[in-house]
């Protein structure tokens, strides 16, 4: 009996410990200008365009991430980017993209991607 009670306490303790403190979404924080050209940020922007092209098949080409925001999300982070890309005629346009990047297994999702007016 005592053993099963101890087991129950341990299970509860592990459960509480495993609940991430980052579970509550945070507010959007601007990515500083000096970090916007970092290869990880630019790489995520390029990934977002590739993913968008897979879905929309509009053949736009990634140029660069111009600006962005980051916020904590459940077991990962969200990025909100303004991306400069070129269409098939080489005309540049800006797009707003929202991404979800998971903490582990490198799993990502493109949440939205649309032209910025
Ligand atoms: C980032 O790159 C762009 C385009 O190459 C450049 O115009 C800008 O000055 C760079 N920003 C910083 C902070 O290095």
TrEMBL record:
GO molecular function: cysteine-type endopeptidase inhibitor activity
Domain Cystatin: 34-116
Pfam family name, one: SQAPI
UniProt signal peptide: 1-23
InterPro entries noted in UniProt: Cystatin (IPR027214), Cystatin_dom (IPR000010), Cystatin_sf (IPR046350)
Highest taxon of source: Eukaryota
Keyword terms, alphabetized: Protease inhibitor, Signal, Thiol protease inhibitor
The family this protein is said to belong to: Belongs to the cystatin family. Phytocystatin subfamily.
Listed name of the protein: Cystatin domain-containing protein
Species for this entry: Eleusine coracana subsp. coracana
High-level lineage: Eukaryota, Viridiplantae, Streptophyta, Embryophyta, Tracheophyta
